Amino acid sequence: MCTVVLNTYNRAYLLPRALASVLAQTRTDYEVVIVDDGSQDDTPQVLAEIADERVRSIRQPNAGLSAARNTGLRAALGEIVVFLDDDDWVAATWLERLLTPFDDPLVGVSCCGLTLVAPDDHHVIDTLLPEDMGAAWDHAVGLFFSGSFAARRTLLSDIGGYEEQMTCSHQWELSLRLVPRCTALGMKVAPVDEALLVTERRPPTDRPMNSARRLVGGTRLLIERHGQRLARTPKQLGYTLAIAGVNSARLGDYRAARRYLWRAIRVNPRLAKNYARLGTAFVPMIGDRVWRSADHRDVADGFERR
């Protein structure tokens, strides 16, 4: 059996769409655990009206996205666990295709592709499929978004689930522990070369996870805990450092911005844009105009493809 952990917070108007897509699956051996992370809108009423024996709901005081997912993981009865956000929806064959690779006992994780759509008319912006993630992920072919991967519950429990201190890029951080755990156990990451998840690409101003403070906090933790592994893929480590640098500048901390951007250049000297960023960080008057305007994001969206 599989458990779908569907986390939600103040999105009573979107939750029914996500849940309806899950309940329309071609595969039937699954349960749905909805974790309401202390919503203050009509979510409790929406949950009270669900009359499907496959669905359980848990309400907890607001503790954050990762904590909500971990609550669902602890409650899961299925051998395989999939996480889904309340503003996404899935194809009818989502579970069937994600779960089939687990017929091989050596598969620990499976990953499918996704379609990015505009929030207004849902026109397709991009399609992402599993790809070689680089040496930092032992060259696993995968894609780690909520809804784009499934994993054995024992593996997720072994690594402690989601890191609740993370302020951004929760999936990316999880993958930096989950994939090496698979490798250590001689298990595989199995790609499913189909886009089975649909996610809306909202503008940066409508994504609280993209606030400068969250991005700096998240990248700092990634660098401290996973810097050595990320260094196996210099381009990726340099990109992470650049995100920390630009968002430090957005907060007005130009000393930290210069430190991160200089490290980014040392790690990946071929990226010309970082030289311009570093130069700007030495002139706060210009940096304020470039980075601290209300609509500027530069590399703030960097985690969206992980």
Radius of gyration: 20 Å
Main beta-sheet strand count, sense and barrel state: 9 strands, mixed
The computed structural class is: alpha/beta
* H-E order: EHEHEHEEHEEEEEHHEHHHHH
* Separation of the first and last Cα atoms: 27 Å
- The percent range for helix content is 25-40%
Number of strands: 11
CATH architecture of the largest domain: Alpha-Beta Complex
Total helical elements? 11
What would you call the shape? Answer: globular
State the CATH superfamily name of the largest domain: Spore Coat Polysaccharide Biosynthesis Protein SpsA, Chain A
**Low-confidence region ranges:** 300-306
What would you say this structure looks like, in words?
This protein is an alpha/beta fold and 306 residues long. It has two domains: 2-202, Alpha-Beta Complex (Spore Coat Polysaccharide Biosynthesis Protein SpsA, Chain A); 208-305, Serine Threonine Protein Phosphatase 5, Tetratricopeptide repeat (Alpha Horseshoe). Helix content is 40%, strand content 21%. The two termini are 27 Å apart.
What's the layout of helices and strands?
Elements: E1 2-8, H1 15-23, E2 30-36, H2 43-48, E3 55-59, H3 65-75, E4 80-85, E5 88-90, H4 94-99, E6 107-117, E7 124-128, E8 131-132, E9 141-142, E10 149-152, H5 153-158, H6 170-184, E11 188-200, H7 212-230, H8 234-250, H9 254-267, H10 272-281, H11 284-291
Parallel strand pairs: 1-2, 1-4, 2-3, 6-11
Antiparallel strand pairs: 4-10, 5-11, 6-7, 6-10, 8-9
